[in-house]
Amino acid sequence: MGVPSVFLRTFGCNFKCAGFGMPRGETSEEANTIDPDLYTDYKTLPLVSTGCDSYASWDPRFRHLSPVLDTDAIAHAIVDSLPHKEWRDEHLVITGGEPLLGWQKQYPDLLDHPKMAGLKEITFETNGTQKLTAEFRKYLLNWSLGNKSRGRDALTFSVSAKLPCSGESWSDAICPDVVAEYEEIGTAYLKFVIATEEDLKDAERAVEEFGAGGFKGPVYIMPVGGVERVYSVNNRAVAEMAMRKGWRYSDRLQVPLFKNEWGT
Ligand code: SF4
Questions:
Q1: Distance 156 CA to ligand 1 centre (A)
Q2: Are residues 49 and 29 in contact, defined by beta-carbon separation less than 8 angstroms?
Q3: Which one of 14, 61, 83, 210 is separated from 174 by 20 to 30 angstroms, measured CA to CA?
Q4: Does residue 216 contact residue 183 with C-beta atoms inside 8 Å?
Q5: pTM of the model
């Protein structure tokens, strides 16, 4: 948080997370009430206060708002967005949707592009359900450890594993073997979205299961809330839970700073 970063957001997700911000067991229809034909630019889409706050990055109804670019165009767009038009201290954050779906096949082309040579750190923001393919795992190991200006810490897996408050099932969402594999090749941490004490209990259970699977990294909890009105109700209580548990607190910096506008 606070590190200058470029976010590459890929399209598609294996989840819907329609339970966020809803009473337990209920699912949000909020994004379904938005008429995609009224929009020609994703930046003008409404924010939602329930369900997945990045619905336009996976819901097929909004696919036409995501540009389709080839690798060369993506590499140029990324480097053009850097303040000095070259890599210095900036990180690349690859997010989604879920960025470790079929896109795994495409990343080597992008990361090998000459424009990406000066990149030193990558974070994958993942829901922690997707195994790395053998080819991509080998590629990433070579990208980080095979380059003397990088190393093991150059690769981070920010694993936002989904608890029942997301509306996704435990067996689909909590995948200790997958996350243990990420930790074998880079740094990994767990990050849970929390609203209530019940969510905190679910997080405790999940941490135990991840720990039993071999996970050793840090745990963050983050308040639910894609809009300021919801976020500001939860943030202090979740910070206090983190202090009680000895876990880390993750803010949602894009909410107070940018009101969670699309593109932030
Ligand atoms: S895993 Fe993330 S991107 Fe996918 S539906 Fe859930 S919150 Fe949205």
A1: 18
A2: no
A3: 61
A4: yes
A5: 0.95
Structure tokens at 33: 């009430």
Contacts of residue 207, defined as CB under 8 A and 6 or more positions apart, other chains included, come to 190, 219
For residues 207 and 219, what is the distance between their CA atoms, to the nearest angstrom? Answer: 8
Q: In terms of DSSP H, where are the helices of the chain?
A: 71-80, 107-111, 134-145, 170-173, 176-185, 197-212, 228-245, 254-258
- If one residue of 94, 127, 169, 222 were mutated to test the ligand 1 pocket, choosing by the most ligand atoms within 8 A of its CB, it would be 127
Strands 5-9 vs 248-249: parallel, antiparallel or unpaired: unpaired
To test the ligand 1 pocket, which listed residue (98, 103, 130, 160) has its Cβ within 8 A of the most ligand atoms? Answer: 98
Contact (Cβ atoms closer than 8 angstroms) between residue 158 and residue 123: yes
Best mutation site among 162, 168, 252 for ligand 1, i.e. most ligand atoms within 8 A of its Cβ?
162
Give residue ranges with CB within 6 A of ligand 1: 13, 15-17, 52, 54, 58, 96-98, 127
> Closest ligand 1 atom, CA of 97?
3
In angstroms, the Cα distances linking 244 to 14, 69, 162, 210, 219 are 33, 46, 21, 20, 13
Structure tokens at 226: 């894609």
SS3 61: helix
- The residue whose C-alpha atom lies closest to atom 2 belonging to ligand 1 is 97
What is the structure's pLDDT at 258? 87
Expressed in angstroms and rounded, the spacing between residue 63 Cα and the centre of ligand 1 is 15
Question: Mean pLDDT for each 10-residue chunk of the chain (264 residues)?
Answer: 94 96 93 96 91 95 94 98 97 97 97 97 98 98 94 96 96 98 96 94 98 96 84 90 96 85 80
Identify the residue whose tokens are 């080597």. Answer: 108
